[in-house]
Amino acid sequence: MGLLVLQASALWAQQDGARAEALFRAAVRAEEAGQRDAALALYAQVTSTYPNTPWAGFAADRIAVLHGGPPPAPTGAWVWLLSLLEWLAGLMLLAVLMAALGWRAGFFWSWALAAHLADRVETLLARVRLRRNLQADLEARRANPRDSRARYNLGLIYFEQRKYELAVEELAASVEIKADRVDAQYHLGLARLEWGQSEAAEEALRRAVELREDFAGRDAQLHLAQALRELGRYDEADQLCQDVRKRQPRSCHLYWQLGRLRAAQRDEASAREAFQQVILLARTAPPATRRRDQRLARQAKAQCRALSQGARSG
Fold first, then answer.
1. Average per-residue pLDDT in the chain?
2. 25-66: per-residue pLDDT in tens?
């Protein structure tokens, strides 16, 4: 029974489309003959009688043009349909580009582009999730400004959106409310690093390390080493990196920070060696850090190329 209903609905829609097309074409002929009022009447009949057909949208465009204005923007289901078509066209274009690059430059570059695309898609989906959670966290903060968790969540959302000033404000408030929140201290340090506040970042990250030395897989220690490097305190940064090296000798993040430290110290050979270690370890990265490690490997390759170009120009 349901199949018969579907078949009848499809037949009805097909008949409506044919009738709408016939009316639209008659209106076009009237417009071409200079019969503006007759054309408007026929276009209006298409939009009112067959509003669920594509011809209704075309007719609405012509009505707007005949009245001397721009075509109206599509609404309702047509917005979604046009968005879907644009997205599919962009995806097809990107697939063709990836195939061309893979053919021209070999398998590695096609893999790298695919990984980069995956990063972009993941980032886009994360932003959608963050927007969905933002309103709820704003309501929670309004209801209780002393809610450390709500302030932390807001700070994390702003951090992911790269609104570092707002992130610092919310994370600092979370830490002020509850000073022993290691996650808030850690992300406050990261936000300050990104915002260019190296000294304040060092303070927050050092506090996070004091609260829990192995937080985030010792990433707190490594970002503290980054803050110290940016402050020119290379020996302290190196000591932290070596401490992590004893406990996690296969950490891509460790060798990335070591490479940046050696480059800052003008030790190009050691920097290149550390960056090559990042590339090597990323090939066998564990699932938990694979995406990040592959991103670090791509950045390490760029650093190696920059070091090679600098050596040639020197």
1. 80
2. 888 888 888 888 888 888 888 888 888 777 777 788 788 777
Query: Within a 13 Å sphere around the CA of 295, how many CA atoms are in the beta-carbon half?
Result: 12
Encode pLDDT of 123-154 as tens digits: 666 666 666 676 677 777 777 888 898 899 88
Euclidean distance between the first and the last CA atom of the chain, given in angstroms as a whole number = 81
Residue keyed to tokens 């550390």? 274
Is residue 229 within 8 Å of residue 237, measured between CB atoms?
yes
| DSSP assignment letter at 146 | T
Retrieve residue 193's tokens: 């690093």
> Residue 202: left if φ>0, alpha if ψ -120 to 50, beta else—which one?
alpha
Whole-number Cα distances in Å, 262 to 174, 276, 297: 35, 13, 17
d(CA 276, CA 283): 11
The structure tokens listed for 250 are: 């296969």
Question: With contact defined as beta carbons under 8 Å apart, do 204 and 188 qualify?
Answer: yes
The token pair at 217 is 């897989």
Q: At what angle do helices 234-247 and 219-230 cross, to 10 degrees?
A: 160
The residue among 196, 201, 198, 129 whose CA lies nearest residue 172 is 201
Tell me which residue of 306, 246, 250, 305 sits closest to 278, measured CA to CA: 250
Q: How many residues are given for the chain?
A: 314
Its CATH class, for the domain covering 116-233, is mainly alpha
Q: What sign has the CA pseudo-torsion 167, 168, 173, 179?
A: positive
**What is the C-alpha separation between 66 and 63, in angstroms, rounded?**
5
Give the residue extent of every domain in the chain: 2-72, 116-233, 250-314
> For residues 203 and 231, is the Cβ–Cβ distance under 8 A?
no
Single-letter amino acid code for the residue at 53? T
